[in-house]
Amino acid sequence: MATSVQEFRDRLFKAKRTDRQRCASEPFFEKLRQVLPPADSSLPLTLPSSVRRVLGAMAEAEKARVIGKFAITDGMAITYHSEPVYTLDLDVLAFIPSSGGLIDLGPIYEFFKGRGAATSGEYLLIDGLKFQFIPAATPLESESLECAITATETEGSFRIIDLEHLIALKLAAGRSKDLLHIQILLDAPRRPVDLPRLEQILKTHALFDKWLKFRSRFSG
Fold it and tell me: Which of 116, 161, 164, 198 is the most buried (most CB within 10 A)?
């Protein structure tokens, strides 16, 4: 049946958005299987098993009080809350033990080396997967960590920064990549964004004006 170009484009757009929203609702580890790295990438092909092993080692570190509470953030958190995005590493927001405002990462590195990890600059590596700890250093980061959710899947449970705080963290960082991640989260979230809650978080941390500028620029 004949149709206009605009009607056809609208149908394509609707179909793509439906596919993205369907993908966002899939289990986290299933989505990780869809993150296929380029041939020359160091990202491991066995990404789900690498992530499971790293998270298991982190849980051991928390139990041993080498680190405090931790949660997945950044790129892999985007994949959990929305559609799969390619990322080179696993970023973990964590409470790191400190003394007089200073932190010592030595015990953390030694703990993970004892569990088979290697080092690469500021990163640790297990099964070819780079991961790093981001010490919670701002009120927003601390609040995000305290409000982190526990996701339970067939492969196990893990903590992850919740959707609204992830958007706030991305807005605070403000890089082009972060703004793109926000748009992905808004376009195809695992669950609808709680806008009143998000706006309250942004107002609490003096980010609301930045949010209005973002919405004006990217969302019309």
Answer: 161
Interacting residues of 131 by C-beta distance below 8 A, sequence separation 6+: 54, 89, 90, 91, 92, 123, 124, 125
Query: Mind listing the pLDDT tens digit for each residue in 199-209?
Result: 999 999 999 99
Number of folded domains in the chain?
1
Spatial neighbors of 45 by CB under 8 A, at least 6 apart, are 37
3-state secondary structure 40-51: CCCCCCCHHHHH
Q: Structural domain of residue 74, as residue ranges?
A: 41-219
**Distances 197 to 34, 150, 205 between C-alpha atoms, Å:** 31, 19, 13
Residue 71 lies in a domain: yes
Average pLDDT, the chain: 88
Domain of 112: which CATH number? 3.30.460
